[in-house]
Amino acid sequence: MIKFYKLNIYSFLLNFVFCTSLFAAAATPSSYKPTVTKVELCTSSSCSDPVVLGTTTKEFDIASASVGADVGTYLSDFTITLGKTYTHMRSTISSTFKVTGAVTVGSETCNTVASPSVASTATLAAKNATDGTLAEMTILIPDANGGGDYSNLTSTFSSKGISKTDGASTFTFTVALSVPYTPKSTDVPTIRMSFDVADTLEATESGGTCTMYLTSPTQSVTISR
Known about the structure:
The chain is mainly beta and 225 residues long. It has one domain (2-224). The chain contains two helices and 20 strands. Strands 5, 6, 7, 9, 15 and 16 form a six-stranded antiparallel β-sheet that branches. Strand 15 (162-163) and strand 16 form a beta hairpin. The protein is elongated and about 65 Å long.
């Protein structure tokens, strides 16, 4: 066995798929905040025998330059098995996200706002008037079976490693490591997680009403020796 007491954390990524609208304009949000409740290291995509890396409920701003330091304080001491190959990381995440940003759609500006006229739910996208007062907005991950503003997302979620029970307050996201990791007794491992939230805030506009969506960042997770 090898016990990890502290790992170097460079940056953090959570990768989600909410909705991609064919005719939406996109922009980079100034903040993008998931709340993580558990992170696990796994030997397969099914995560049948996970090693728990952390279980604290914590909000991260993955658009922030300081997110790497924030994640470094999240992980607990944990033990992994020498010679066993780890291939995936699974996160349990709140279905509720917070995001701030503005999207230019033609000649109109669609801002995230504190109190949209139609609040985001598991079946409805957030809607608000153009040129609203810029503020942090709450967006919920849709139900896998869709409904309302969303089509059926079952196959999309499955292809992205997302598992969510309709109506649940959390979901799991499983991502493959860039390279499988098999620990050795001489290792001083480093976990590197990278993210890019460019153009992940989308909006459509019609008749003075903006419809807001959140899409997936680019992600990578690597464990090196």
